[in-house]
Amino acid sequence: MLEPFKERIYVTRPVFPTIEEVTEKLRDIWDSKWLTNNGPQHTMLEHELKNFLKVPYLSLFNNGTIALMVACQSLRLSGEVITTPFTFAATPHVLSWNNITPIFCDVDAATMNIDADKIESMITPHTTAILAVHVFGTPCDVEKIRDVADRYGLKVVYDAAHAFGVEIGGNGIGNFGDISMFSFHATKLYHTVEGGALVMKNEHVKQRIDLLKNFGIKNEEEVVMPGINGKLDEIRAAIGRIMLNYVEDERLKRIRLHAIYDEELADVDGVTLMPTCADNVKLNHQYYVVRIDEKIFGRSRDFVYDEFRKFNVFARKYFHPLCSEFTCYRQLNSSRAENLPVANVIGQQVLSLPMYGGLTEEHVRKICAILKSFRRRN
Ligand code: T4K
Questions:
Q1: Under a CB-based contact definition with an 8 Å cutoff, are residues 122 and 103 in contact?
Q2: Is 49:241 a contact under the CB 8 Å cutoff?
Q3: Contact 52, 244 (CB under 8 A)
Q4: 32 CA to centre of ligand 1 in angstroms
Q5: Best mutation site among 187, 286, 351 for ligand 1, i.e. most ligand atoms within 8 A of its Cβ?
Q6: Is any atom of ligand 1 closer than 6 Å to the C-beta of 62?
Q7: Mean pLDDT for the stretch of residues 50-69
């Protein structure tokens, strides 16, 4: 008889630095008398992250959503942008905030990322860009996306909120596309409490982005564009510098947990595991997501989600509902269910299981045993 966990097991838990490390950094900040607006911690973190992510230029932000909004502004995107419905609300919302219509393209059944083969059929004279998401850290088909974008003269922006530290053939994932956004929210593998970054290919774009995130202020006399406040403060930047020392250890712990999930769930009929990637892809193991096929498993994803809660397991339906089902987007032509057959199935099946370094092997084996106990055999 499986007993519920004594404490709640959430889908994730933030990695915490020691209070001593934070106190030490806070002392540096207090001594510097500099709290925000491009201080020394900010400068150092930009440099350190640029090296860590293996990208040429990087600009820090106060969160990933504002960063992505600024990315759209910096590339002067307008009209329509082709994106995925299988993502967090922030992705299409940044388009709306830029007065751009999101055009939802169906996703690939294996990777759950935008289906690169379907993008071309969605391009119209109003299309200015593709906004793709490396969902759950699995890289998009970057080659095909670049190919279609080049043929039609479109910009490519990657929402890499889930893809911190992911690499393809030793190349940082941020090197693909015109601009990529990383989120440093507390629930991410690497975080600055709240925060984010844009990475870009050239200095000119970075200069424009740095202006846009600081109200467009060039100097005390000149405001050269309608910018916003997207700045990351010194306290969060300092925490981010500490957290860089934790990220690889956390990733290694998650690799171990990922392997245990794979081992325990490999032979469960009706449960699809995380997609596997080419050997040259370095993943970050931020999430562990399964898909439950009701017809084979005998129980729906929603049944599993509800029953898990009785065992104190708080899995999450990332990402259900689809963005195309939100009241603000469902009237769009591209939101019609017949346009998004794969995404609609995945949205009904997907379940994000607990994944964070603080979980033990026993936790994961028990979560899997609970999941297997839900299965209804004919
Ligand atoms: N693009 C994509 C593809 C994204 O996934 C996101 C964010 C963005 C863009 C936007 O980036 P940011 O502007 O956020 O930088 C969470 C995160 O808030 C959000 O950052 C993330 N994606 C999304 C996938 O997940 P919620 O609403 O699910 O978070 P919440 O508060 O329910 O937290 C999840 C679990 O984590 C809780 O059940 C318990 C645990 N938790 C959470 C917090 C905040 C803790 O134990 N301690 C904590 O302090 O959105």
A1: yes
A2: no
A3: yes
A4: 32
A5: 187
A6: no
A7: 98
| Contact (CB, 8 A) for 84 and 119 | no
Please choose from 185, 289, 355, 356 the residue to mutate so as to test ligand 1's pocket, defined by most ligand atoms within 8 A of CB.
185
Ligand 1 centroid to Cα of residue 150, in Å, is 33
* 292-308 confidence digits (pLDDT tens): 999 999 999 999 999 99
Report the C-alpha gap between 144 and 70 in whole angstroms: 25
CA angle 252, 61, 239 (to 5 degrees): 50
Contacts of 310 (CB under 8 A, 6+ apart): 4
Residue 142 pLDDT > 90: yes
CB neighbour list of residue 121: distance below 8 Å, 6 or more residues apart = none
Q: Are 182 and 239 in contact (CB under 8 A)?
A: no
pLDDT score for 37: 96
pLDDT of residue 378: 64
Q: What is the mean pLDDT of residues 115-138?
A: 98
Amino acid at residue number 334: S
For residue 58, give both structure tokens: 């990087």
What integer pLDDT is reported at residue 322 of this predicted model?
98
DSSP 139: P
Please report the pLDDT score of residue 71 as a whole number: 98
User: Would you state the structure tokens that stand for residue 345, as one six-digit string?
Assistant: 């199935």
Q: Does ligand 1 come within 6 angstroms of the Cβ of 128?
A: no
DSSP H or E stretch at residue 257: helix 247-265
Ligand 1 centroid, distance to 340 Cα (angstroms): 25
What band does 245 get if pLDDT is binned at 50, 70 and 90?
A: very high
Give the pLDDT of residue 377.
74
pLDDT tens digits, one per residue of 176-190 = 999 999 999 999 999
